[in-house]
């Protein structure tokens, strides 16, 4: 009986063994199967970038990147930020449409000292503001002649109280959408002042006048630079002699020569220069097909004449820039690195040609009247002439200090 029960139990166990084995294997397969779920997407940065912040931002003194060109020269479009540091005095290329307006902004901690717009032609206008002495922005509008002028058509020089000098080159564009709508200059005024002091240059320009008797509100920013004024006469330290009749006060003898007389003197000087071309002995190196030579001549104490010869040494005609030749004060630091360029205002100019085009292998002559500036030990007066295919690299030569009467 016991044997039969044992045999029956073994039979039952053998019968259920395959099913148990299959259940275990099935459980293992279910446990090994990975859980289904959504795959995580790799985290990526937002592909959209703020192009308005990335484009049009550059450090003063470096060439800005731009996708807009006129005559092979790049200009800045839309909104631009210019970061200026230390000794930099940036040249910024601005595009202007005939019906557009450009806003130029400067830091709150600095004020305008002088603004020098172009004199020849109606190319660009600086809007005159009654509160210019307290403003920190300029509004530029296109003149009537800008649309038909080659680029760069004009330049505007802005000098701040800190001494920072900014040059704006104006390029004509066809559509308002191509224009430079806003240009913002960003800099630390203390850095500009420190760099200029290290170079031996003046700082806090014009601020010493604010402490004089005149009220602060009477100080005006120069929009068109005035001619040089005469130094005040010092009082005599001796008793004057008895009065004697004189034909005119001594001060009258120091008045400026009338415009007609200056023009006559310029035409005579120009005729002399054209009749004696060999008198131009010190020529500049050839720069983009141009060579320049100069001779100074003194007209009176307040007026000097620069005789300028410009030679096209190439085999094709060259067109020089409007308003050239230019008189420029060049300032260098102790390493002879140029840190500032400032235009000198012309009083009158005569030329041997009425065209800006110089034929091949031809020399043209200019007589330019100007008020002689006062120069520092690191400054020199130069004459520069640029041509439209290389506007940013003009030919230039020093104008010697000695002048022939």
Report Rg: 37 Å
Helix content: 10-25%
Give the terminus-to-terminus CA distance: 154 Å
Shape: elongated
Can I get a quick summary?
The chain has 405 residues and is α+β, with helices and mostly antiparallel strands.
Description:
- There is one protein chain.
- With 405 residues, this protein is α+β, with helices and mostly antiparallel strands.
- It has 2 domains: 52-218, no CATH class; 257-398, Sandwich (Immunoglobulin-like).
- The protein has helices spanning 2-32, 51-54, 189-198, 259-275, and strands spanning 57-59, 69-70, 73-74, 78-83, 91-96, 101-105, 112-116, 124-126, 137-142, 154-160, 165-172, 180-186, 290-300, 303-312, 318-319, 326-332, 338-343, 346-351, 357-358, 362-370, 379-385, 395-398.
- The protein has a 6-stranded mixed sheet with strand order 1-4-12-6-9-8. The chain has a 4-stranded mixed sheet with strand order 5-11-10-7, with no helix packed on it.
- Strand 10 (154-160) and strand 11 form a beta hairpin.
- The longest helix is centred in the first third of the chain and has 31 residues, at 2-32.
- The chain is elongated.
- Mean pLDDT is 76; it is low at 26-56, 60-67, 69-73, 211-220, 224-233, 244-257 and 401-405.
């Amino acid at each position: 009986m016991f044997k039969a029960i044992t045999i029956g139990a073994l039979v039952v166990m053998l019968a259920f063994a395959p099913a148990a084995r299959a259940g275990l294997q099935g459980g293992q397969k279910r446990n090994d199967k990975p859980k289904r779920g959504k795959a995580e997407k790799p985290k990526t940065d937002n592909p959209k970038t703020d192009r308005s912040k990335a484009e049009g931002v550059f450090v003063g003194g470096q060439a800005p990147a731009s996708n807009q060109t006129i005559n092979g020269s790049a200009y800045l479009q839309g909104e631009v930020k210019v970061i200026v540091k230390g000794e930099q005095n940036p040249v910024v290329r601005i595009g202007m449409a005939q019906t557009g307006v450009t806003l130029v902004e400067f830091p709150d901690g600095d004020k305008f000292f002088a603004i020098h717009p172009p004199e020849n032609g109606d190319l660009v206008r600086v809007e005159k503001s009654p509160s210019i002495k307290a403003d920190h922005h300029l509004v530029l509008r296109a003149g009537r002649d800008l649309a038909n002028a080659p680029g760069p058509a004009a330049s505007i020089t802005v000098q701040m109280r800190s001494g920072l000098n900014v040059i704006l080159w104006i390029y004509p564009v066809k559509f308002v959408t191509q224009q430079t709508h806003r240009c913002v200059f960003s800099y630390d005024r203390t850095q500009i002042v420190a760099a200029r002091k290290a170079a031996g240059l003046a700082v806090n320009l014009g601020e010493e006048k604010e402490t004089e008797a005149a009220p602060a509100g009477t100080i005006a920013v120069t929009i068109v630079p005035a001619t040089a004024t005469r130094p005040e006469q010092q009082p005599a330290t001796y008793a004057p002699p008895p009065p004697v009749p004189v034909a005119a006060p001594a001060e009258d003898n120091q008045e400026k020569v009338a415009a007609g007389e200056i023009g006559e003197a310029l035409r005579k000087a120009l005729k002399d220069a054209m009749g004696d071309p060999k008198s131009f002995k010190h020529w500049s190196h050839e720069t983009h097909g141009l060579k320049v030579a100069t001779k100074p001549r003194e007209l009176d104490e307040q007026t000097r004449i620069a005789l300028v010869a410009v030679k096209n040494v190439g085999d094709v005609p060259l067109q020089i820039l409007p308003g050239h030749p230019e008189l420029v004060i060049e300032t260098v630091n102790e390493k002879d690195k140029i840190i500032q360029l400032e235009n000198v205002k012309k009083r009158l100019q005569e030329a041997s040609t009425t065209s800006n085009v110089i034929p091949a292998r031809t020399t043209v002559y200019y007589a330019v009247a100007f008020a002689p500036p006062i120069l520092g030990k690191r400054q020199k007066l130069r004459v520069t002439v640029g041509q439209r295919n290389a506007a940013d690299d003009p030919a230039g030569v020093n104008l010697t200090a000695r002048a022939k009467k």
